[in-house]
Amino acid sequence: MTSHPPASVVLPTVEWTPACREVADQLDQGDELLVVCDDAADPVARRDADLPDRTRLVFAGEPESCSGKANAVAAGMEAARNERVVWTDDDFHHPPDWLDRFHEDYERHGPVTELPFFVGRDPLATLLEPTYALGGTAGVYAGDNAWAGAVMFERDDLDEESFLADLRRTVSDDGLLGERLDVTPLRRTRQVAVGGTIRETLERHVRFVQIVRHHDPVGMAAMVAAATVATLFCLLAPLVAFPLLTLAYAGIYLAFGVRRWTALLAYPATLCQVPLFAYALARRTFVWGGRRYRWRSKFDVDVLD
């Protein structure tokens, strides 16, 4: 017997990855795993007749005015049978106690989220790891934001009907969830490999910057201002800036239990920020998951291809 309510785990993916099996193996009686893809043409659909117990396949269809990820999450939420819901992604390791620990954390804190630590798979993504640690890990924690890769809540923790309607006309699932849900970030990170090519990393950077731009414009302005000041500091006092930035970022890594040599890239990563912000803010479209999007405002999205 479990001591917690059953949960519906929503996992958008187009392929059956190790994460799917890891989550399926953790399901208790009453739990369910909803593997959400676009349609029957996706590779994961071929497993429909050979899915683990308590696992269902959900077809979300093509997105019309939102991202494919937002569309998949909305479809998964609508198909879910339980009041307690977990969102997760297919691109990181879910240890055997992942779901049980989430339930324990929810009972203590209410809605909870883990934190991503993005690990680069190409030279540019590797160079940017310190800034990912600052914005994507420490920033999510300090800002009490949600990471859609690992979040647990119950339906009555937010206005579900309004939330799902808005989810289907925006890009960022976690950006919107962070606005609508009072969540407690846990100081527990999951390493997520990102990039693969420099082009993929640039597209991801554009998307990240535009998420902040549309969901937190004041924060966006503060980030650009801070990056400008940090760049001037690096250029005017490099012998001071290099060790200070390296120590500061090493401290961020250690605070979240991460030990990676890339903290040593803090100085060159800082020098990249202003040019990358300018590039991302100047772009009018970006590619995510094989689709190109034009994101004019929070609820004005064109799916171009």
TrEMBL record:
<feature type="transmembrane region" description="Helical">
    <location>
        <begin position="261"/>
        <end position="282"/>
    </location>
</feature>
<keyword id="KW-1133">Transmembrane helix</keyword>
<keyword id="KW-0328">Glycosyltransferase</keyword>
<protein>
    <recommendedName>
        <fullName>Glycosyl transferase family 21</fullName>
    </recommendedName>
</protein>
<dbReference type="Pfam" id="PF13506">
    <property type="entry name" value="Glyco_transf_21"/>
</dbReference>
<dbReference type="GO" id="GO:0016020">
    <property type="term" value="C:membrane"/>
</dbReference>
<keyword id="KW-0472">Membrane</keyword>
<keyword id="KW-0808">Transferase</keyword>
<dbReference type="GO" id="GO:0006679">
    <property type="term" value="P:glucosylceramide biosynthetic process"/>
</dbReference>
<dbReference type="InterPro" id="IPR029044">
    <property type="entry name" value="Nucleotide-diphossugar_trans"/>
</dbReference>
<dbReference type="InterPro" id="IPR025993">
    <property type="entry name" value="Ceramide_glucosylTrfase"/>
</dbReference>
<dbReference type="GO" id="GO:0008120">
    <property type="term" value="F:ceramide glucosyltransferase activity"/>
</dbReference>
<comment type="pathway">
    <text>Lipid metabolism; sphingolipid metabolism.</text>
</comment>
<keyword id="KW-0812">Transmembrane</keyword>
<comment type="pathway">
    <text>Sphingolipid metabolism.</text>
</comment>
<feature type="transmembrane region" description="Helical">
    <location>
        <begin position="222"/>
        <end position="255"/>
    </location>
</feature>
